[in-house]
Fold:
Amino acid sequence: MSDHSDDQPATPVPTDQTPRATPIQRALREKQEAIAARPKPPRGGRFQREQAARVRSGAVRPWSSK
Structure:
């Protein structure tokens, strides 16, 4: 009888983690995924025009700029 288990690895590597990722690299990847998952502000249209029409923060106190 021949055993076919020699051809395949004993335990497969989990797909959700890279095998050579350090804990810092994994934490950075998770942080970037969390940032990317946040809701984004609307783009274009009325919202963008309202944002562009705001008074700049320095325009309120013109004496403080040189």
Observations:
- Helices lie at 23-37, 45-52.
- The CA atoms of residues 10 and 46 lie 59 Å apart.
- The two ends are 89 Å apart (CA to CA).
